[in-house]
Amino acid sequence: MEESHRLAKTRGPYIQDRAEMVERQIRARGITDERVLEAMGKVPRHLFVPPAYESRAYEDMALPIGQRQTISQPYIVALMTEAARVQPDDRVLEVGTGSGYQTAILAELGGEVRTIEVVHPLAEAAKALLERLGYTNIHFMEGDGWKGDRRHAPFQAIVITCAVPEVPAPLVEQVAEGGRIVAPVGTAFQTLYIYEKKRETLKPTALAPVVFVPMTGPGVQGEPGRR
Predict the structure, then answer these.
(1) Where do the structural domains in the chain lie, given as residue ranges?
(2) Is 99 annotated as catalytic?
(3) What is the pLDDT of residues 14-68, one digit of tens each?
(4) Tell me: the pLDDT tens digits for 152-197?
């Protein structure tokens, strides 16, 4: 994406709120990757929430975005992004586009981002907003996130933005050797893990207790898409 687009997103309302969010909620809690901090300071989070919540967009909390889904709190977005260690030439898969906010943060780090959303209204709205903001390195899909995107694998990083009872087997296959999967794993309450793939095996490291909305779609329900 051209630098003019990046700079454009630093202007407008809520500049101070965004700067304070980065310093007080993110850097102060241990996020040290300057590329992640810069991305969090650029992307206008208030555009990714419903108008009724715009004034609360930079508070340290998740917010509803409709369709019984949420936008994660800024710190968790930053934590997941830092754990993914996205490099400029990486191919990244995001499972659960949602509002598109996490998608935008990943896209700011460069590389190619492919994002999947099963809920049509969310997929449609996120695509329209991200295209309006000028992102050209994001590719959109609608469908079952459990199955991933086999056509464009392998991915150096996979970020799952909804709770899963286990890491979906197709995603294990689709992450590259040496690649990372970031996922909240569990049922009512989850643990956020970073998995690194070494010799075809995932090595997990627990990051934090979290609460995410569950993945939906046939795969997670044990229907044919899960195989």
Answers:
(1) 3-226
(2) no
(3) 999 999 999 999 999 999 999 999 999 999 999 999 999 999 999 999 999 999 9
(4) 999 999 999 999 999 999 999 999 999 999 999 999 899 999 999 9
The one catalytic residue in 4, 55, 72, 99 is 72
Query: Shortest CA distance to 117 belongs to which of 69, 76, 150, 73?
Result: 69
- Measured distance CA(211)–CA(214) in Å, rounded: 9
User: Angle at which helices 101-108 and 120-132 pack, to 10 degrees?
Assistant: 40
pLDDT of residue 111: 87
Burial class (CB in 10 A: 0-12, 13-18, 19+), 172: middle
Query: Is the pLDDT assigned to residue 5 strictly greater than 70?
Result: no
Query: Does the predicted TM-score (pTM) go above 0.70?
Result: yes
CA 149 to mean position of chain CA atoms: 16
Closest C-alpha to 22, from 39, 37, 8: 37
CATH number of the 3-226 domain: 3.40.50.150
**Number of neighbours of residue 185 by Cβ within 10 angstroms:** 20
CA atoms within 13 A on the CB side of 181: 29
**CA–CA dist 193, 159 (Å, integer):** 10
